[in-house]
Design brief:
Strand order of the largest sheet: 2-1-3-4-5-11
Order of helices and strands: HHHEHEHEEEHEHEHEHEEHEE
Strand content: 15-25%
CATH superfamily of the largest domain: Response regulator
CATH class of the largest domain: Alpha Beta
Shape: elongated
Number of strands: 12
Structural class: alpha/beta
Distance between the termini: 90 Å
Oligomer: single chain
Length: about 325
């Protein structure tokens, strides 16, 4: 052989085993480089029963949260020696998700992360993975599933309590789509915080996460005979649309009306005025989901848990003291 060693020694070096002398290892590695040899990881994985691959199913790749979470999953998986295989699902139905899971199983993944950002029947009735380890992100699922998500209600509470501290008592909520789990929980956080303070609430307005829907709802707020003193928007893009509508009608933010968003998008500090918002730790959600899945794949745990990642409030210029009169 090129390195003057046995095939067994080459195999030990290729597999990262430690029972090889340093000088011998260096000679084998030099020969591998000179010959352009690459270990057959697929064959090794088949022998061990592992494929070192994680499947990811997501409903909507355009939202900020999904985009950042997917990036964090890929980074964490790569650091652990896993590849990621993404299957986007255009139509969030149980049949489509079952089909995606089936395709991933054919591609020989070791486990699946489902980013379940819209309602899919009852998540507790999903029986789609044929025994593969599964972690769900952004869901109301309970055991027997492992769930990792932002603590959406805690974030909404931070936003509303911040407005309380500024003297606001008439706070309107612009929510995301009614079928969205995260939008539902942010709405629940708003309603419960207002109720705990003994304050009445206005009818919730529903948008679709886009700035254009926020602008349309901003126009509806402007048309109200007695507008609120503050608006808590369920994401930053809708908050941007609200700011646009308010500026068009000469409403000063925050002197006349305050606006608080949710997400802390990359450009939130560049809004006019800069946006007070709830910061989500998407990187931690993705990392935690990947860590939990790999632990399940490795057989380190068979318990199903729910991990809620706390948020923080970023105070900027769009929120201020409530107007008088």
């Amino acid at each position: 052989m090129h390195a003057g060693v046995s095939a067994q020694t080459v195999s030990r070096v290729a597999n990262g085993q430690t029972n090889v002398r340093p000088a011998t290892r260096d000679r084998v590695l030099a020969s591998m480089q000179a010959l352009g040899y690459r270990p057959n990881s697929a064959a090794r994985n088949l022998k061990s029963g592992r494929f070192r691959s994680i499947g990811v199913v997501s409903f909507n790749l355009e939202t900020l949260g999904n985009e950042r979470t997917l990036d964090a999953i890929a980074v964490a998986a790569a650091a652990a020696g896993y590849t990621t295989m993404l299957l986007p699902v255009a139509d969030p139905t149980e049949l489509e998700v079952a089909g995606a899971f089936g395709r991933l199983e054919e591609q020989a993944v070791d486990g699946i992360i489902l980013i379940m950002s819209a309602e899919l029947g009852s998540p507790d009735e999903l029986k789609l993975t044929a025994g593969l380890p599964l972690v769900i992100v952004d869901s109301d699922a309970t055991p027997p599933y492992t769930v990792v998500d932002t603590d959406q209600e805690q974030g909404a509470r931070l936003a509303v309590e911040h407005l309380f501290e500024l003297g606001h008592r008439d706070i309107l909520h612009v929510a995301g789509p009614e079928k969205s789990f995260s939008a539902r929980r942010r709405r629940a956080g708003y309603l419960r915080t207002m109720e705990a303070a003994g304050l009445p609430t206005r009818p919730v307005l529903f948008g679709n996460w886009t700035a254009s829907s926020g602008r349309a709802l901003g126009e509806a707020i402007v048309a109200q005979a007695e507008p609120p003193t503050a608006v808590f928007a369920a994401n930053d893009q809708m908050a941007l649309g609200l700011l646009n509508a308010f500026h068009r009608h000469g409403w000063q933010v925050p002197e006349f009306i305050s606006v608080v968003g949710f997400d802390d998008a990359d450009d939130a500090a560049a809004y006019w005025p800069s946006l007070t918002t709830v910061h989500q730790r998407f990187d931690e959600v993705g990392r935690r989901a990947t860590t939990e899945l790999i632990a399940m794949i490795d057989g380190e745990t068979d318990e199903h848990t729910t991990s809620l990642i706390p948020t923080s409030l970023v105070v900027r210029e769009s929120s201020g003291p409530a107007r008088r009169g």
